[in-house]
Amino acid sequence: MAAPESGDGNNGAARMVTLISSDNTRFEVEAAAASLSQTLQLTILDGGGGGGDGIPLPNVDSATLSKVLEYCIKHAPAAANGGAPNATAVDRAELERFDNEFVNIDQSVLYSLIMAAHNLEIEGLQSLVAKKVADMIKGKSPMEIRRTLGFPDPTPEEQAEMNAHMLEYGWAYE
Amino acid sequence: MSFRSIVRDVRDGFGSLSRRGFEVKLLGHRRGKSHGAVHELHDPAPVIQSSCWANLPPELLHDVIERLEASEATWPSRKHVVACAAVCRTWREMCNEIVKNPEFSGKITFPVSLKQPGPRDGTIQCFIKRDKSTQTYYLYLCLSSGEPTAGIMFVVLFTSCSYLCSIRAIASHLQFYLLIPSFYHYCCVTQCNLFPTAVLVENGKFLLSAKKTSRPTCTEYTIFMNADNISRSNKMYIGKLRSNLLGTKFVIYDTQPPCNAANVSQPGKTSHRFYSRKVSQKSTSKTYNIAQVSYELNVLGTRGPRRMNCVMHSIPTSSLEAGGTVPCQPDSILARSLDESFGSISFAKSSVVDQSICFSSTRYTLTSQ
């Protein structure tokens, strides 16, 4: 991630980029943090996002974007070290603690997060949320999973299909 | 959570739903939008946030379920993967894509795993429990590794590449045989101790049960995929095994036709396969001869090692060869898609060669009960 700094000749202070959420809120963030997003990294390498013109992110609202950037800022130093080969155990534990708390949020926010991570191609965040969701549905019945994730009520057809499958899948609970 | 509570859970959901379904009809649209009877394919922008998970992009759903599947490798927590498959059709398709057949994963996940080929290398261990009072036999997947204590539990070693479809319990006198016609190299019959029901079954995942019925000319074992409340009218009835009086010849019947055509992908199949009550009732009476097993008597009569000959009608010879694959694997263990299957049986049969395999059992422990 050192490339943008040296390449752009922005010495001294870390290069900043501006991101604009779907509701037109501007976020100024270090290029290194934003570069955790594969999508943004390309734009930033091209010199975008600096100065007055920010990078518009029409698919991400400000609440989600601030959450995403919170993650990126926290993870940027470790990522800059190339997967943190020289990170101490303390650093790793701290990141892990941060991650655990970070995803301890409502499922609707989790959804926005995983979608944003997917759109922006932030691999670490996407797997973090995917893991959280996997943990959330573990040990739940199909109906509980639906409720937990706020699925709409099944249509009669869906319901009949579920019933038919539960007849067979009930075997798993014997 | 018990199976009953799960089913109740699903049914309760259904109850409340039918009421809602009625309202929907009256209102035209459940969300009360102003379009009357016009159904929109997609709700406009302000989608109810919480329902989004139902439309999670496939690659993200894959990510989630793959993680879950990887973390729940053993029973009983493996059932969490099965629960995911029942959430909705999209999830089920994703689960089916992610969960590998036992042939490749060595794991039993969905009930249909019992009808799919086992691993070519390695074994799957099982044990059997008998309830003398009800003449019922229970087959369990062994969950604890290591040799069990002799006399309490005898683990049946499934030889490599066993075809779990053909697990059928044969009881002959006081000895219990588990039949695992393995279709790659040989068949395996392993004798095992029967042990009293009092023995804890916490170490096992229930697989199949078989109820013994003695008839004047034969003995029949009806096979179910549930452990209690078993009767022929039960929807969990999946087949039977009939032996001659001497216990030397066994015929295995399946409620699904051999080389079930259900796996031949047919668009729209799932949309109507579950609703035909008539079909499922019919299936309980119709069975198909899928395999035959016969034993040669030795000097010990029915005891001791015996040569076994197994003919499986549904496994083509090519499956036995290196790199061979097993065609026509069913996608469901229950015979509920008969309506679609009938049309394709005839073509399926022509491609199937009877496979005769001889096997001398090498692993025997004579038991006296």
TrEMBL record, chain A:
The keyword Ribosomal protein does not apply. Residues 16-75 form the SKP1 component POZ domain. Keywords: Ubl conjugation pathway. Pathway: Protein modification; protein ubiquitination. Residues 124-163 form the SKP1 component dimerisation domain. Belongs to the SKP1 family. Involved in ubiquitination and subsequent proteasomal degradation of target proteins. Together with CUL1, RBX1 and a F-box protein, it forms a SCF E3 ubiquitin ligase complex. The functional specificity of this complex depends on the type of F-box protein. In the SCF complex, it serves as an adapter that links the F-box protein to CUL1. Part of a SCF (SKP1-cullin-F-box) protein ligase complex. This is SKP1-like protein. It comes from Eleusine coracana subsp. coracana. The gene is ga14711.
From TrEMBL, chain B:
The chain crosses the membrane at residues 137-158. Residues 53-97 form the F-box domain. InterPro entries: F-box-like_dom_sf, F-box_dom, Tubby-like_C, Tubby_C. Keywords: Membrane, Transmembrane, Transmembrane helix. Residues 114-147, 191-344 form the Tubby C-terminal domain. Pfam families: F-box-like, Tub. PANTHER family: TUBBY-LIKE F-BOX PROTEIN 14, TUBBY-RELATED. Belongs to the TUB family. This is Uncharacterized protein. The gene is ga03938.
